[in-house]
Design a protein that fits this description.
This protein has about 170 residues and is of the alpha+beta class. It has a single domain, classed as Ribonuclease H-like superfamily/Ribonuclease H (Nucleotidyltransferase, domain 5, 2-Layer Sandwich), CATH 3.30.420.10. It is about 35% helix and about 15% strand. The chain contains five helices and four strands. The strands form two sheets. Strands 1-2 form a two-stranded antiparallel ribbon. Strand 3, helix 2 and strand 4 form a beta-alpha-beta unit. Helix 3 packs across helix 5. The protein is globular and about 60 Å long.
Amino acid sequence: MLAPTVLRTWAPRGQTPLLRHWARHDRISVISGLSVSPIRQHLGLYYQWHHHNFHLAEVCAFLSHLLRHLRGPVIVLWDRLRLHRLAPVLDLCRRVPRLRLESFPAYAPELNPDEYIWTLTKKRLANGSPDDRYRLALAVTEELEACRASQRRLRGCITHTGLPLSHA
């Protein structure tokens, strides 16, 4: 959102930092996923953003995006959002046998490495105040690209969940 996330920061004694921002609720929506190569254990980050809330078409488009970029079987672990369980998503899964959908347990965001990607991203964007949705999208994209470029950060997001990096 354009309203900034505020975190504690440092400032010279007696000079309280001021964070000026517009009282606007404009936002962008981002869907993302973390991939693990079963052989090399290489991690990847995939995402797409829009100026509106995600609908079924965008979820299906993101799954298709993943299928274009990932070879072999693709197992998608995601939360139990209703949008993830609707007929068009399930139809895509039936049409593409290498795509398998699995859900995390209910109320278990701590098991989802993607939640940690967003924790990192939001923390790095905290105390910022973009002027419009374009600058917000640019800032989010820059942080996601920095995260994508760091195997250490991506690996940390998986390690933090306590889940194994591979099923082997």
